[in-house]
Specification:
Length: 319
């Protein structure tokens, strides 16, 4: 389906939980965020109905997000149902990697094509600082398990000046040794900490830093890809990518919508506008399709997040 600006919408990001086993500093405040009540989170049957309706409208790719999706019970059975939908060509999942060691083989077996692993440091202490207590060793073990299971991997690093930006080159070097896509994401002030502007490093600066160490070649993207501008280091097995939600918004090529774990459909991560799908779920498949058409049709030309000085809880939206 196309939106009013002629953009083809073929990608759904589906959050199944707002719960997480980490407390990353750019995702939530140190005190955490109130968890949804159990009854406020959509049942798997409802999430499946929404996805079925989305696929009938032309959605071909679904990414399962959270929170941390691997903490929700029953996930594997849900993914198996999801993967059997006719018309769905790609099913991926975003995770922090802590539970990958025990789940990687099962994820592959039910049809997950690829994992996006959020990993912001290769230094144990820095990782612990960013995640407020996470165990880097478990994540690295999980990456090994995912690779052994045959899952394709993307690593997502949120680059923050003065915290982890000194590791940009080390992350890029991972693409030389592994067939991974390593992506560098501009810091977004989702919790509006007082010094957030000091943390931001533009995608342009990240790219220039990489060029000082590596020889990079721009490479094409597929129509189902996300917003990263991809490059390959000469001779590398994998790729690197730059995602610029702040300095160079990629709204003109946006191909996705998202649904939160509470059933709010959004045309943009950085928008306040959302349509509650619960009433449509009660009425049936056509009502769900109509609601999703409304969301897609209302998709704006671009976001104005920085100018509006808003904030939101990334864990509840499924970033």
């Amino acid at each position: 389906m196309q939106d009013k600006l002629g953009r083809t919408i073929n990608y759904l990001r589906l959050s199944i939980t707002d719960r997480c086993n980490l407390r990353c500093c750019y995702c939530m405040p140190a005190t955490g965020v109130p968890a949804c009540e159990h009854g406020d989170v959509l049942r798997y049957e409802e999430l499946l109905k929404i996805t079925e309706a989305a696929v009938s409208l032309g959605i071909e790719k679904v990414r399962i997000t959270g929170g941390e999706p691997l903490v929700r019970k029953g996930l594997i059975s849900f993914l198996k149902q999801l993967g059997s939908l006719s018309g769905l060509t790609e099913m991926t999942l975003t995770t922090n990697g802590l539970l990958l060691e025990e789940t990687a083989e099962r994820l592959k077996a039910v049809g997950v094509n690829r994992l996006n692993v959020s990993l912001d440091s290769l230094d144990h202490q820095t990782y612990k600082q960013i995640t407020r207590g996470g165990d880097l060793k478990k994540v690295l073990t999980g990456l090994d398990a995912a690779e052994q299971a045959g899952l394709r991997l993307k690593l997502n690093m949120v680059v923050m000046r003065g915290i982890n930006d000194q590791e940009v080159e080390a992350f890029a070097a991972l693409s030389q040794k592994h067939p991974w896509s390593v992506r560098f994401i501009e810091y977004m002030p989702t919790i509006r900490e007082a010094v957030w502007k000091n943390r931001v490093i533009s995608g342009g600066e990240i790219l220039e830093r990489l060029k000082l160490t590596f020889t990079l070649s721009s490479i094409p993207t597929s129509r189902l890809c996300g917003p990263a501008k991809p490059y390959r280091i000469d001779g590398a097995m994998g790729t690197v990518g730059i995602i610029t939600p702040m300095s160079e918004h990629f709204c003109g090529n946006c191909n996705r919508i998202r649904v939160t774990s509470q059933g709010l459909a959004k045309s943009c991560l950085l928008s306040d506008q959302a349509l509650d799908l619960r009433s449509a779920l009660a009425k049936g498949p056509q009502s769900i399709r109509d609601a999703l058409v409304e969301v897609i049709s209302g998709k704006n030309q671009q976001h104005h997040f920085e100018e509006e000085e808003r904030c939101f809880q990334m864990s509840s939206v499924g970033g």
